[in-house]
Design brief:
It is rod-shaped and about 115 Å long. Helix content is 71%, strand content 2%. The protein has a three-stranded antiparallel beta sheet with strand order 1-3-2. The chain contains 15 helices and three strands. Strand 2 (36-37) and strand 3 (43-45) form a beta hairpin.
Length: 310
């Protein structure tokens, strides 16, 4: 210590910005012992003690607890090891805070109260695996005993909601609504009817390619009618319906008669549950996919026009 400049605890407090009480606490616990004491018993600190105190202050400012700081000072762990572990822990905390923020914003925007807030928070905190299990249970219970179209079932099973690391309030609200929708028994029954009908149609010779092509033709024709403000019970609408039913008759090799129109109405009614479209819209919002085009207005207009023409 010969020639080494020693500073008092007061001077050290002014240099570091720490309080005398804090420095004294670190000395009493052995984290930063004083270099020596004056004849009157006052603590004095040398260069090594000052450097040690600076390290303690930095580690504490970074959020490390005293036990971890002591491990670093005692060389039981390196600063790099501690920093890595602490950064990983902070990642978890940051994600939790982001989720909490998104839930609070969703609550504020939707006016959710009571049990709805707790449910939204619980759903938002679910892991990807927990969300996958919820969808698997929904699919298994919905189609377990049904004669369903396997392509539809597989599509539902593989399309899993995946909240991003920093979800928006809209994504959290969408996940809460989607989770609630999967528990809707009426929706499950509607999906069973839809899947069973599709399976029966495929067995009777319907093909996905033809079905998609005709759907696109209907969307284009009816979309134009909707854009023009054409009423479904008008004479022009009747002509449009006649053109569309003729296309269905040609593709499926059926007579263009009342039976064909009744068959078309059944197809539209089975596929026309707006909750099915809502399901895919919510899933797309959660996963950040492009929003699927809405066919509900098209199906509603075509159904009304078919009934009017009949």
């Amino acid at each position: 210590m010969d020639g080494e400049e020693l500073v008092t605890i007061g001077a050290l407090a002014r240099r570091t910005g720490l309080t005398v009480k804090t420095i004294r606490f670190y000395a009493d616990t052995g984290l930063v012992p004083s270099t020596d004491r004056t004849a009157a018993g006052y603590r004095r600190y040398g260069t090594a003690a000052v450097a040690r105190l600076e390290l303690v202050r930095t580690l504490r400012d970074l959020g490390l607890d005293l036990a971890t700081v002591r491990r670093v000072l005692d060389r039981e762990a390196t600063v790099a090891e501690v920093a890595r572990a602490h950064a990983d822990a902070l990642d978890v905390q940051v994600r939790a805070l982001r989720l909490r923020r998104a839930v609070l914003r969703a609550v504020a925007e939707q006016g959710t109260e009571g049990e709805g807030i707790a449910l939204m928070h619980r759903l938002a905190r679910q892991t990807d695996e927990e969300r996958r299990r919820l969808i698997e249970e929904f699919v298994d219970d919905t189609f377990g005993a049904a004669d369903a179209n396997p392509e539809l079932v597989e599509l539902l099973r593989t399309a899993v909601p995946e909240l991003p690391e920093e979800p928006t309030a809209e994504q959290v609200a969408a996940w809460a609504e989607l989770a609630d929708l999967t528990r809707d028994e009426e929706f499950r029954a509607s999906l069973r009817r839809m899947a069973a009908y599709q399976a029966a149609e495929c067995a009777a010779g319907d093909t996905t390619g033809l079905h998609h092509e005709l759907t696109e033709q209907v969307r284009a024709a009816v979309g134009g009618a909707l854009a023009a403000g054409l009423a479904p019970d008008s004479a022009r609408a009747a002509h449009l319906v006649a053109d569309l039913t003729a296309r269905y008759a040609q593709v499926f090799g059926r007579p263009d008669d009342d039976a064909l129109r009744a068959w078309l109405l059944t197809r539209l009614e089975v596929a026309g549950d707006p909750r099915a479209e809502r399901y895919w819209s919510l899933l797309s919002r959660i996963n950040g996919w492009p929003a699927p085009p809405s066919l509900q207005p098209v199906f509603d207009w075509f159904t009304a026009a078919l009934r009017a023409a009949a």
